[in-house]
Amino acid sequence: MLFWCLLVVSISCLSLAFQGERRVPVTIAGIGKSIHAYWREVELGMKKGAQELKGCQVHWFVPPKEDVRVQVSTMESFIARGVDGIAIGPSNPEAIKSAVQVALKRGIKVITFDTDAPDSGRLLYVGTDNERAGFEAGKVMVQLLKGEGKVAICTGSLTALNSIQRMEGFRRALKGTKITVVEVYNDREDRASALSNAQAALQKYPDLKGFYGVYAFNGPACAEAVKMAGKAGKVVIVCFDATAEHLKLIREGVISATVAQRPYRMGYLASQILYQMVTEGVPSALKKWKMDRLPIEKRHLDTGIDVVTKEGLSSYRKRLLDLGIPVENW
Fold it and tell me: Does residue 11 have a pLDDT over 60?
């Protein structure tokens, strides 16, 4: 009788142990916003992070341009396939809420990167503190324009939380100055629209002194419009992201400054964290990243920013190389 009791106890203990045992292979999915060098860096980081883990496989998807419905349907497809974890940069936080909740109910771990959806129930946000980053961009604009002039904002979304926060932060930095925002242009992450918007702004406001580019497309699009209008160096451009295209334009002196996010790091950490959540459990993973005591909507792992100007190009390049981040020729 004692033998059977001990056997039952042993089996119970083994069962509990197996519940926390690693599931290999682990399949995770990444969903970005559009085809662009920025999201290519996120993808590279995510795949590099997975390479360092035992039996971790990454499935990656971005729509050709920002498309909320395609993002949602893709997420639903990954849920149906039974992936273990999903990282998504939501173009519209409200639109993905239902899919996030379905995934979580099925035991699929969901985090956000690049832009957050804090009310969706996602387990963690990995990315930039966008309001603070927008504030830093605004401070640079104030300095370059010496506190006065007309500025147009160009963005790829009016619904994505990162866009909203970057504009809020930027406007906060302008308070108390004589800089006015004349208009906000939305290109829906379409390159041709981004260029035509910038051209329209220059035509409508001939005394425009600056552009604030919120998304990766915007800085280069504004730069192209400024060059075509013969106003390179006369209209200040402060923007986001640091692809090879951005950095070449900074070297040329067309873009004045850019707020460089860390997309490679976002993707890398997304793989690492999702893998930990799947193999070790969510509480353990959150504890490792010191997020376990925070309310769910406050769980934000800030990946940081770098403000890059012409004077700082060489040191920025060296820093990327030191971190092992692939750097294109620029």
Answer: no
